Amino acid sequence: MSIAAMPSFPTGFRWGVSTSAYQIEGAAGTDGRGPSIWDTFADTPGRIADGSSGEIACDHYHRYPEDIALMADLGVSAYRFSVAWPRVQPTGSGAANPAGLDFYERLVDGLLDRGIDPVATLFHWDLPQALEDTGGWLNRDTADRFAEYADLVADRLGDRVRLWITLNEPFIHMSLGYGTGEHAPGRALLFDAFPVAHHQLLGHGLAVAALRARTAAPVAIANNYSPIRPAGDTPADLAAVAAYEALHNRLFTDPLLGRGYPTELGFDQSAVRDGDLAVIAAPLDVLGVNYYNPTAVRAAEPGSPLPFDLVPLQGYPRTAFDWPVAPEGLRELLGWLHGRYGADLPPIQITENGCAYDDLPDADGRVHDPDRIAYLDSHLRAVRAAIDDGVEVTGYFVWSLLDNWEWAEGFTKRFGLVHVDYPTQRRTPKSSYAWLREVIAAAERTPAR
Length: 449
Ligand code: BGC
Ligand code: BGC
Prior knowledge:
Layout: E1 14-18, H1 21-24, H2 37-42, H3 60-74, E2 78-82, H4 85-88, H5 98-113, E3 117-123, H6 129-132, H7 141-157, E4 163-168, H8 170-180, H9 194-214, E5 219-225, E6 228-230, H10 235-250, H11 253-256, H12 276-280, E7 286-291, E8 295-298, E9 309-311, H13 328-341, E10 348-352, H14 370-388, E11 393-399, E12 418-421, E13 426-429, H15 431-445
Parallel strand pairs: 1-2, 1-11, 2-3, 3-4, 4-5, 5-7, 6-8, 7-10, 10-11
Antiparallel strand pairs: 8-9, 12-13
Helix pairs in contact: 3-5, 7-9, 8-9, 13-14
């Protein structure tokens, strides 16, 4: 893994790490935080692989100074975290809980002291339970509540956050949370989950307006994308690819970039009211791209409720999550976004990319994770190749700084550059951390252009 061979990146390229609130903070009952849908879901037997919850997680709520020091030592110029809505509004509406905002203020100020740009995501899936009790994102009112919450956070932090991200992966939240029920809130509505897409997007648009009223900082959304590969070559397989592509890659991005909803999925669009599409298409400063792997699909079995079947993509090495490692998919995806949306595409930042591997401390106490180094190396080269192809990519954030609570997988999947021993909360930087520090230092010594 030669660092010298890593191609250079444009001047000002943003190097970062990403996390999210419920996955690292713990302190679930501290300082007036209200319950979220993930507390409820994790307490439901059978939902989480190891029966765990995020109640303590990485205890980042108390250990954030140590985590900031790890980032400073790594040399990143930005940190993408999420704000827990139930800390700011314990029941999802009404006045702010000052103690919740105080935590994020301490975090943001600590980052700025170390020269790290705070990048704040407002919604990374931890909806206040009280809002779920009135329908969650199936209820149009949740979009208005989200804009009010955005206003409260921006009122406190609008002068210091350097990039705002409204929603994290609304497609994954809709599909796993409301479509299949694998994630909180655990509803299995399949295509009847469409109002969740629309209300998240409406909430995004209303939040963009709320943020613009309080801050001049740039505003983004972070979407999950996946190149779609046919598992067979029949016309029915190719039709399944087109349907799944419309769902995964276009359902959110087409309306965000002014093209309205894809029509071929046949959703009931009665949730869409006059004027909504204009709110949703509010100009964005940055498009956040989260990339992990391509997806293979084939024609659905007769009688299936969906127009496609997802199948394992064959022929690639796999992570501990059994996800295929396909860096060329990232270059392909960036080129697809550039080609499809043209002048309407804002500059891109890769807001998540990373992998789960099981590496644990050796007898010498060190954690060697060569597979993660290979994954990050190949995906950074794919980003560089996309820049050479003409795509404007201005940053890259690794998922994740720390091993953390991986949703339905509990603590069984480790995505960190830093190993966490959960019983002691001891942090041990892995060899990928040392590798990335060299990559960032080398990039800043010899920037391209
Ligand atoms: C996708 C990933 C995504 C994950 C969310 C997987 O099926 O391939 O890209 O991040 O679901 O848990
Ligand atoms: C999510 C993260 C998650 C990661 C790995 C993304 O879908 O935004 O919260 O931990 O992928 O699954």
